[in-house]
């Protein structure tokens, strides 16, 4: 029984003015020789260790609270509390403390404060002070200031002082003294009053704030806070609040209580943000009630305005009225922006009601009009309001735009207005565009779309977005990567930095934002974006940007492709191989030379991903078409790894299909799309072996005509490609008129037939498969595939006699190996 009676928790007050639990144990009061007096001891119930040893000091103020708590201050900033499991145990220890201090156990505070038990309070007159406050006179100001600052360290004494100040109407008397001091120019008195008023604010009592921030007192409180002793000259806060700060009423507010609340909130916010110094670590919690005071005022203002539907309707009417002048409209939009900012203080259910009220009154159609206006300030404020709405309920915005689509043209749809604002942002840093892009991403994010029993918002909205809005979003991208544009911008003999279309930084930044959004679509919208990319041949257009002089834009284009490949979708893979879309990526890697930079790492990571994930169709395409250009890159094992994977797969295929060893051996070096009869195939393979030349990549011969073609048909194709190449004037190939892609190697390729032939090879995309521009890709100056097309020998045997010849005829390889 005695065990539970004496069972206590020990608490100490931390720097944040929060109580920390120090452990549970059993309390006793014993004489401790070392401390020379009766002491409170608490031993931990777990291991019997000493949790507390505190001498009962005759002068310490102990306070009993709620029948089971004893609280006291051990030192200046060290408050302790014992929380008893049972009232009987608390009474027992309280008696011991009162006995040591010679007090009656019926008191609840042993020192400094008079008896304050409930029945005693009832008997006492209401004005009876709980702390003896000095009389409110000029000569006592220093004493009052000392008292106020001394109690701040003890929560109990702060409570008592607050009650005393409240009961005596003391604050109003102090503010009368302030006026006297100011009239007398009594600087010393004014400095004391600064300390007193600042100290009273730090008491953190809402009841005192009600008095201090009332209309009759607040300006005098601000006045007291102007006289900071640390300043040579007092600040002129009252002058600012009365003369400089102007209260704007966009529509007159008739409710006097609401007006008073708005004034009060502004002034109290000013006191907190401007006048009071930034609180130190120890003072942070001193102003928590002041923050709450402002918070609840804002809640009240929003609620009162919300309930006044006549007022809000009038604001909306003026906002959308064409007759409203620009200045007035700017004020109305700023009012709404602040209104929405205040609404963030509301509880979730109240915030719901707030935004529903706005939606009912027509905030979205109003924003649509305002966002399309010329005034930059108005547009910026409208964007902020739109962001509050999107963050609150993307579904509400989506529902509005889908309904709107049934009644109006694509041009004036809210989402298209937003996209146009993003595209037309005049800020060189595109600050507004970045914000709008974030909002668009929230709107098209399937993660926050609802699926209900009767409809799925995701499919409905995405169908709407891809039908009505996607063309607006991609327009700048398609416009800046069109052949006409590139042809116009390119100059004959120009380097790659000139051939790229979006040459200026702002356009490049905008395209990067659009690509970021499209990359997000690839990740989150499955078939919608897939259909769009295939229909518009979008990846080819995006990869034009690999040649941009702005590396960040080239990286955005690469990231777009990387996301597509990351899906490991065979539809995408077929689209990439059929369109030969690795070409611009590999050329970018080769153009980058031996530089070890982000572009280099990102391209290699793309190929490394394909290797690690073993994406067979892409590995085959890369090795067959580009290995000759890539084999010199030896500082990573990626490309050799791709070749190994390719050969392993060929071996596997051949083991399945064939049992004849000779067929196995020669098939290893062949990949022919045409289905040949088996004996015909054997005949060709044996023929190649007799020639003994298929083993060596033909790219390394100085005369491709010497190669023995595997079939007459292929030979004719090669011949035609060669003839058409000869017809072209080589220097002209640097202009974008000749090809969709031009690269900086072109000029060096023009120097002679040898160097052109050693690395320049046909990229075997037949005209039939070309999509608009792919036929122009048929010949590339950077080495991509062998002249012989897809029938390439892919392994160099170390003892091959042509190795030495290769060293002489591939000048571009040498520096790469050095890297």
* Percent of sequence in beta strands: 5-15%
* Low-confidence region ranges: 113-129, 487-501, 667-716, 722-819
Spatially, the strands of the biggest sheet line up as 4-3-2-1-7-6-5
Give the fraction of residues assigned to helices: 55-70%
Biased composition (Low complexity): 744-775
Domain PP4R3 EVH1-like: 5-101
Protein name: Serine/threonine-protein phosphatase 4 regulatory subunit 3B
Family: Belongs to the SMEK family.
Name the features.
819 residues; alpha+beta; two-stranded antiparallel ribbon; 40 helices; 57% helix
How would you describe this structure to a colleague?
With 819 residues, the chain is α+β, with helices and mostly antiparallel strands. It contains 40 helices and 9 strands. The strands form 2 sheets. A 7-stranded antiparallel β-sheet has the order 4-3-2-1-7-6-5. It has a two-stranded antiparallel ribbon with strand order 8-9. Helix 17 (376-392) crosses helix 18 and helix 34 packs across helix 35. It starts with a helix and ends with a helix.
Question: Helices, strands, pairings?
Answer:
Layout: H1 2-5, E1 7-13, E2 19-32, E3 37-44, E4 50-55, E5 62-65, E6 69-75, E7 78-84, H2 87-101, H3 118-123, H4 141-151, H5 155-168, H6 170-184, H7 187-202, H8 206-212, H9 218-224, H10 237-244, H11 256-275, H12 288-307, H13 309-320, H14 326-343, H15 348-361, H16 363-371, H17 376-392, H18 394-405, H19 414-423, H20 431-443, H21 457-468, H22 470-480, H23 483-489, H24 496-499, H25 505-524, H26 527-536, H27 538-543, H28 551-566, H29 570-578, H30 583-591, H31 598-613, H32 616-630, H33 638-657, H34 661-667, H35 678-691, H36 712-727, H37 745-749, H38 753-759, E8 761-762, E9 779-780, H39 803-809, H40 813-818
Antiparallel strand pairs: 1-2, 1-7, 2-3, 3-4, 5-6, 6-7, 8-9
Helix pairs in contact: 4-7, 6-7, 11-12, 14-17, 16-17, 16-19, 17-18, 17-20, 18-21, 19-20, 20-25, 22-25, 25-28, 28-31, 30-31, 31-33, 32-33, 34-35
């Amino acid at each position: 029984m005695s065990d539970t009676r004496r069972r206590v928790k020990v608490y100490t007050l931390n720097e944040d003015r929060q109580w920390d639990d120090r452990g549970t144990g059993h309390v006793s009061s014993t004489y401790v020789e070392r401390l020379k007096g009766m002491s409170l001891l608490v031993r931990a119930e777990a291991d019997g260790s000493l949790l507390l040893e505190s001498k009962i000091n005759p002068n310490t103020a102990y306070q009993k609270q709620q029948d089971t708590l004893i609280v006291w201050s051990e030192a200046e900033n060290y408050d302790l509390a014992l929380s008893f499991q049972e009232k009987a145990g608390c009474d027992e220890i309280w008696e011991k403390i009162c006995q040591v201090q010679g007090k009656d156990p019926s008191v609840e505070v042993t020192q400094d404060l008079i008896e304050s038990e409930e029945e005693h309070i009832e008997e006492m007159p209401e004005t009876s002070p709980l702390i003896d406050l000095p009389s409110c006179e000029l000569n006592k100001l220093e004493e009052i200031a000392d008292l106020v600052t001394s109690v701040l360290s003890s929560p109990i004494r702060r409570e008592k002082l607050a009650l005393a100040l409240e009961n005596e109407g003391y604050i109003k008397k102090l503010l009368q003294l302030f006026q006297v001091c100011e009239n007398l120019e009594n600087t010393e008195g004014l400095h004391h009053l600064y300390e007193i008023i600042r100290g009273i604010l730090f008491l953190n009592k809402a009841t005192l704030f009600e008095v201090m921030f009332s209309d009759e007192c607040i300006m005098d409180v601000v006045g007291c806070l102007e006289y900071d002793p640390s300043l040579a000259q007092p600040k002129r806060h009252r002058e600012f609040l009365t003369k400089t700060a102007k209260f704007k009423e966009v529509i007159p507010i008739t409710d006097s209580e609401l007006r008073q609340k708005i004034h009060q909130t502004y002034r109290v916010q000013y006191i907190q943000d401007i006048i009071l110094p930034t609180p130190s670590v120890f003072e942070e919690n001193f102003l928590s009630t002041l923050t709450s005071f402002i918070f609840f005022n804002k809640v009240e203002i929003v609620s009162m305005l919300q309930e006044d539907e006549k007022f809000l309707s009038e604001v909306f009417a003026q906002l959308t009225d064409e007759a409203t002048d620009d200045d007035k409209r700017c004020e109305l939009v700023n009012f709404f922006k602040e209104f929405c900012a205040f609404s963030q203080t509301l509880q979730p259910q109240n915030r719901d009601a707030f935004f529903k009220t706005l939606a009912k009154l027509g905030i979205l159609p109003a924003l649509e009009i305002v966002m399309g206006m010329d005034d930059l300030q108005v547009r910026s404020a409208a964007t902020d309001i739109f962001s509050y709405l999107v963050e609150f309920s993307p579904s509400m915005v989506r529902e509005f735009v889908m309904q709107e689509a049934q009644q109006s043209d694509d041009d004036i749809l809210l989402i298209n207005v937003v996209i146009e604002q993003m595209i037309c942002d005049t800020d060189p840093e595109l600050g507004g565009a970045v914000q709008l892009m974030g909002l668009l991403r929230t709107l098209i994010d399937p993660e926050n779309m609802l699926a209900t029993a009767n409809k799925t918002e995701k499919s409905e909205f995405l169908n709407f977005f891809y039908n009505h809005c996607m063309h607006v979003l991609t327009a700048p991208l398609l416009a800046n990567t069109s052949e006409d544009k590139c042809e116009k911008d390119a100059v004959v003999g120009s380097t790659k930095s000139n051939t790229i279309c979006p040459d200026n930084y702002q356009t490049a930044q905008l395209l990067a934002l659009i690509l970021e959004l499209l990359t997000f679509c690839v990740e989150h919208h499955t078939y919608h974006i897939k259909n769009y990319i295939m229909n518009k041949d979008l990846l080819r257009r995006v990869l034009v940007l690999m040649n941009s002089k702005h590396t960040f834009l080239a990286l955005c284009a690469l990231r777009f492709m990387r996301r597509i490949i990351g899906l490991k979708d065979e539809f995408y893979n077929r689209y990439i191989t059929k369109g030969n879309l690795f070409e611009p990526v590999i050329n970018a890697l080769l153009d980058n030379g031996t530089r070890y930079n982000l572009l280099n790492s990102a391209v290699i990571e793309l190929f490394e991903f394909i290797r690690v994930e073993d994406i067979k169709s892409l590995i085959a395409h890369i090795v067959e078409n580009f290995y000759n250009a890539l084999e010199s890159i030896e500082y990573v094992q990626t490309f050799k790894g791709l070749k190994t994977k390719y050969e392993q797969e060929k071996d596997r295929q051949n083991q399945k299909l064939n049992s004849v060893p000779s067929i196995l051996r020669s098939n290893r070096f062949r990949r022919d799309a045409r289905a040949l009869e088996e004996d015909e195939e054997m005949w060709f393979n044996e023929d190649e072996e007799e020639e003994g030349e298929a083993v060596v990549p033909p790219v390394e011969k100085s005369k491709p005509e010497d190669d023995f073609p595997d079939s007459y048909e292929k030979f004719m194709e090669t011949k035609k490609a060669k003839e058409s190449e000869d017809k072209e004037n080589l220097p002209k190939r640097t202009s974008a008129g000749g090809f969709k892609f031009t690269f900086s190697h072109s000029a060096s390729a023009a120097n002679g037939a040898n160097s052109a032939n050693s690395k320049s090879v046909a990229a075997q995309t037949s005209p039939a498969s070309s999509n608009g521009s792919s036929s122009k890709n048929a010949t590339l100056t950077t080495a991509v595939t062998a002249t012989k097309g897809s029938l390439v020998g892919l392994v160099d045997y170390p003892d091959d006699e042509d190795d030495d010849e290769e060293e002489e005829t591939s000048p571009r390889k040498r520096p790469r190996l050095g890297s």
